[in-house]
Structures are given as C-alpha cells and as structure tokens.
Amino acid sequence: MTDETENISRALEWIVTLLNRHRIPYQAVGGLAAQAYGAQRPLVDIDLHIPLEQAGVALEEMQPSIVRQPAPHQSASWNLVYLALEYQGVWIEIGDSGSEPRFFNGRDQRWELQSIDYRASQIVQLYGVKVAVMPKAELLSYKRMLNREVDHLDIEEITPAT
Q: How far is it, in rounded angstroms, from Cα 74 to Cα 101?
C-alpha cells in the first residue's frame, strides 16, 4: 500500500466507524462510489451524504477535524449544505441529505433533486473498509446527468464494453 492509500484507508475507517457507532446512516458517492464499481482514477476526496439533523453527537466528535462547518454551498454542479473534514491529510466532504441537495443536470440544463435512499446502499469493501455505497445504477444515472469530463471517465471505467 502506498502512503496515500494508507491515509485514505485510515480516514475511511475513522469516518465509517464514527458514523456507525452513532448509528448515522450514510452513503458514499462521487469518486469513492465510482471506485467501488471499478473506476481507477485517483481519489480526490471522500464524498458522503448523511442526514445532519441526526448527527449531533457525531458532529461533536468530528469537530477537531472539521475545516468547513456545515453551511449552504452553490457551485456550477451542486447546491447543498455540506461540511468538510481533513483527517490525516485526506479531505472528507459530507453533504446533508436532509437539506434537499441538488445537482446540475448538464445534459438537460436544469437542477435536479438528489434524494439519497440509505436502505438501497450497497456494502462494498474499499481500502479495507466495508462502506455503504450509492447503488451502481443510480451512480451511473447521476454521473450521466452531471455530464462532466470526470464523470465520463468514471462511466467508461464502470460500464463494461459491449
């Protein structure tokens, strides 16, 4: 394992263990979810969704690692409430699924509601950690709508050639 891979593994183990201990539902999305289904590009950060309204005690425990307090954010691709953590050099971004997060559908040029169904999560072993991940079909649909270059790369690596 490289140092970077070890750092990702430790950060993922830390956040998943913390969320599980406090019984906070979560779902891995983004590049980490893409890796769960075969994408090979390097991980930029760990992206998760949780319902922040259920995370009070867990947020207190995260406090030493928080580099961005939960707050609204809008960019060209997302409109959501999120917080950011840094754990041993690994950036973790946590979106609030309870705040009606939206993403920009680049194909249809409109904002879409991103609803997270925690019960539909797939449990996948990533970096030595069992992680609840966005279902593959949902991830592919989401990435097709986002329609960014990085999403095209992920889709190509996740989808078997026909």
A: 10
